[in-house]
């Protein structure tokens, strides 16, 4: 299986198959003086086959396989006769070749024809374009103004100070009522409730805060 997967191309006949594992092979017939890669005479090619009849090779300049005709009787490629001296014939996958009486197909592998060590390294794909982020329509958040500690604490004796109340805000009432001027509970935003919360604030304002 390892040799089959490493093959560059394949010759497929009715009764034989040959996997190319080099970039050039010679087809013809064996003799006492030379041995070819594919002996077509032993495969039933007849007597019209020369010792060196044809050569199939990979053309690195054009990046394709080609057939170079050497034998005087020529070769048929897709029914067209090619004779010695003609330019090499480009071979495509599934081309039908005939040398002498032997017919066979030239086939290319599905996953490329070159050995991985000879393939050019492909550059990495470009990164995908950034996804545009729609602008936010939210209003900017303004931080609340800082109040200095000196503005909250009045001067007093031995560290005791009185809580300095902010001025009343007549236009803002969280309880839904308009405040009355001079009401310290309302100025703090607690409303006019007469519960325990209002009395505790009044006591705190009388005693003051200790730091």
Q: Which keywords apply here?
A:
disordered N terminus, disordered C terminus, Fhl1/FHA1, Tumour Suppressor Smad4, single chain, six-stranded antiparallel beta sheet, FHA domain-containing protein, 211 residues, alpha+beta, SMAD_FHA_dom_sf, nucleus, sequence-specific DNA binding, 2 domains
Give a written overview of the molecule:
This protein is an alpha+beta fold and 211 residues long. The protein has 2 domains: 2-109, Tumour Suppressor Smad4, CATH 2.60.200; 150-210, no CATH class. It has 4 helices and 13 strands. The chain has helices at residues 2-5, 149-152, 184-187, 196-207; strands at residues 9-13, 17-20, 24-28, 38-39, 52-59, 64-69, 75-77, 80-82, 89-91, 95-99, 102-107, 160-161, 209-210. The strands form 3 sheets. A 6-stranded antiparallel β-sheet has the order 2-1-11-10-7-8, with no helix packed on it. It has a 5-stranded mixed β-sheet with strand order 4-3-5-6-9, with no helix packed on it. The protein has a two-stranded antiparallel ribbon with strand order 12-13. β10 (95-99) and β11 form a beta hairpin. The longest helix has 12 residues, at 196-207. The chain starts with a helix and ends with a strand. The model is unreliable at 1-6, 154-159 and 185-211 (pLDDT under 50).
Write the SSE topology.
Elements: H1 2-5, E1 9-13, E2 17-20, E3 24-28, E4 38-39, E5 52-59, E6 64-69, E7 75-77, E8 80-82, E9 89-91, E10 95-99, E11 102-107, H2 149-152, E12 160-161, H3 184-187, H4 196-207, E13 209-210
Parallel strand pairs: 3-4
Antiparallel strand pairs: 1-2, 1-11, 3-5, 5-6, 6-9, 7-8, 7-10, 10-11, 12-13
């Amino acid at each position: 299986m390892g040799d089959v997967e490493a093959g560059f191309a394949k010759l497929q006949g009715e009764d034989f198959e040959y996997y190319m594992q080099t970039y050039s092979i010679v087809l013809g017939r064996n003799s006492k003086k030379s041995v070819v890669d594919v002996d077509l005479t032993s495969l039933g090619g007849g007597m019209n086959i020369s010792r060196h009849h044809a050569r199939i090779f990979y053309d690195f300049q054009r990046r394709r396989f080609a057939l170079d005709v050497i034998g005087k009787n020529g070769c048929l490629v897709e029914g067209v006769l090619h004779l010695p001296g003609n330019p090499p014939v480009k071979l495509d996958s599934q081309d039908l070749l005939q040398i002498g009486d032997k017919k066979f197909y030239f086939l290319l592998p599905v996953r490329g024809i070159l050995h991985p060590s000879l393939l050019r390294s492909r550059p990495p794909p470009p990164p995908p374009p950034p996804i545009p982020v729609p602008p936010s329509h939210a209003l900017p958040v303004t931080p609340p103004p800082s109040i200095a500690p000196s503005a909250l604490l009045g001067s007093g004796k031995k560290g005791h100070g009185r809580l300095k109340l902010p001025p009343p805000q007549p236009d803002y009432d969280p309880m839904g009522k308009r405040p009355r001027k001079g009401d310290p509970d309302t100025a703090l935003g607690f409303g006019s409730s007469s519960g325990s919360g209002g009395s505790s604030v009044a006591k705190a304002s009388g005693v003051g805060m200790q730091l």
